[in-house]
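Anyone up for a design puzzle?
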């Protein structure tokens, strides 16, 4: 290892290499605190050539490596199993080009999501995918996780906004995939890398599609007696043909946590749920849409529907949604943000079952979720030092996934598989499916050295797809 550390220091300089135990501790986990693994070192490259050289150095010393952005991921994707080296891209944070005419931006992977929208606002443009972590998470992490956010309903997830990528392949070669025009020839390799969870290479440059800022946005807040009636309103709004930019539900337990925190937004704590609806588009069309949503929400059982009067009130409505995770940080040392998707019409029934599972396992479970997409986020506040509680959290998490899959859903909407859900992939894929995915992975990473131990349930699939791989076999699967 000392030879590798010397080689990495040579590439990124002394201030670009972390190897003291107290520095490495920070990288032990990402946002999923119940899975941890210490890296043997962390490198902080400043450009793509340093990334490529760091990859080659790791390979020369037979050590696996893991790309990392801000570490806000919620599925254990950015932790280094098997004492690998973390290659963190946060110093590669330059916006390289803004092309308003073609509505395109070219960025390095360490650019923080919210910074891009700020930078292009003067051109009347914005970058649509907006994870609730957008003040911290990086665009490289967003690409790897195919991140969504509250506005996914209308604007789509990250994959709809990535035109081209440059990446360092796991053998150290620098390649480009996709086309800035949006019309690439041949296989859709951008589609493979987006959502690849950092297993196919390290993204060093991203060409992104920008969107025109809507002329106007209206934000409504519906107060409901319970989550079921709020879900009914969501179904009615979608069925009416409207396509809101966002349809988000915050349940009673989350409202209580938010109102007791610095994110307090003045929500009634006796409400069973609130529904946040955002409509955007040409000003002339919005008045009628607002009235339509108000009527549908009242018919579904809302006791009150407020429309934000100005930007300050709109921000206040959103504070309850975007501050929810932070507010829950006060409740317990750990927060497990679960993620699954069900068909929208199954939301009321599934939410009842999710709450029943939480209660049965004696857990503090609350819900704040992208209702328009059917994308649930049951949040469990817990203390991982309590072994019995941790066991109950894991059991409840698995039960929730099974219920969602039985309802025709999938096991992740936006947080990825990582280490968190690799054991559950067979709930939605056959052995043959998994083998095919491993062969795709092996085409990029034949030796299994780039973020090994992620996504796939056991090494078997990867080893069978590519028996010569050196890396996969070393990673322990639990
Ligand atoms: C409070 C909170 C709210 C959140 N809300 C949302 C939400 O609304 N929607 C949503 O989708 N997610 C959400 N997330 C999850 C998380 O923020 C996203 O997954 C985000 O995209 C991770 O970005 P990151 O920079 O932190 O990546 P990291 O956590 O550092 O890494 C995530 C994955 O990306 C890979 N990776 C990172 N950089 C690169 C690169 N340059 N090349 C290749 N692979 C790379 C890593 O190996 C890892 O597998 C939330 C998280 C938190 C903590």
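Challenge accepted. My sequence:
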């Amino acid at each position: 290892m000392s030879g590798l550390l010397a080689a990495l220091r040579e590439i990124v300089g002394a201030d670009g290499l972390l190897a003291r135990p107290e520095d490495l501790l920070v990288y032990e986990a990402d946002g999923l605190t119940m899975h941890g693994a210490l890296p043997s070192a962390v490198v902080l490259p400043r450009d793509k050539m340093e990334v490529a050289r760091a990859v080659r150095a790791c390979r020369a010393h037979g050590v696996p490596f893991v790309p990392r952005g801000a570490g806000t991921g919620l599925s254990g994707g950015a932790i280094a199993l098997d004492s690998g080296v973390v290659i963190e891209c946060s110093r590669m944070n330059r916006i390289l080009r803004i092309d308003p005419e073609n509505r395109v931006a070219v960025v390095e992977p360490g650019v923080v999501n919210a910074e891009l929208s700020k930078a292009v606002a003067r051109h009347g443009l914005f970058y649509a995918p907006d994870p609730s972590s957008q003040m911290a998470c990086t665009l490289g992490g967003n690409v790897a996780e195919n991140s969504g956010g509250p506005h996914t309903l209308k604007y789509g997830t990250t994959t709809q906004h990535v035109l081209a990528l440059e990446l360092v392949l796991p053998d150290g070669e620098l390649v480009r995939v996709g086309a800035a025009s949006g019309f690439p020839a041949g296989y859709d390799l951008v589609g493979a890398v987006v959502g690849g969870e950092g297993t196919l290479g390290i993204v060093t440059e991203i060409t992104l599609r920008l969107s025109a800022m809507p002329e106007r946005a209206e934000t409504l807040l519906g107060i409901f007696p319970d989550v079921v009636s709020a879900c009914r309103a969501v179904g009615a709004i979608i069925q009416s043909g409207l396509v809101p930019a966002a349809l988000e539900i915050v349940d009673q337990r989350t409202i209580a946590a938010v109102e007791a925190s610095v994110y307090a937004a003045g929500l009634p704590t006796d409400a069973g749920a609130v529904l946040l609806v955002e409509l955007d588009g040409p000003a002339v069309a919005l008045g009628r849409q607002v009235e339509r949503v108000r009527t549908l929400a009242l018919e579904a059982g809302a006791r009150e529907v407020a429309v934000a009067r100005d930007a300050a009130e709109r921000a206040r409505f959103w504070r309850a949604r975007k501050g929810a995770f932070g507010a829950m940080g006060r409740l317990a040392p750990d927060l497990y943000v679960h993620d699954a998707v069900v068909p929208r019409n199954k939301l009321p029934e599934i939410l009842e079952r999710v709450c029943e599972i939480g209660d049965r396992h004696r857990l503090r479970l609350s819900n704040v979720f992208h209702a328009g997409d059917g994308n649930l986020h049951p949040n469990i506040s817990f203390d991982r030092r309590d072994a019995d509680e941790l066991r109950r959290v894991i059991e409840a998490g698995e039960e929730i996934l099974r219920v969602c899959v039985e309802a025709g859903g999938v096991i992740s909407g936006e947080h990825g598989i990582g280490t968190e859900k690799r054991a559950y992939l067979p709930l939605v894929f056959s052995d043959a499916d998994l083998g095919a995915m491993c062969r795709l992975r092996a085409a990029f990473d034949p030796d299994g050295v780039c973020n090994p131990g992620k996504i796939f349930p056991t090494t078997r699939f990867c080893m069978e797809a590519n028996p010569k791989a050196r890396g996969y076999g070393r990673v322990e699967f639990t």
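A detail worth pointing out: The longest strand covers residues 216-224.
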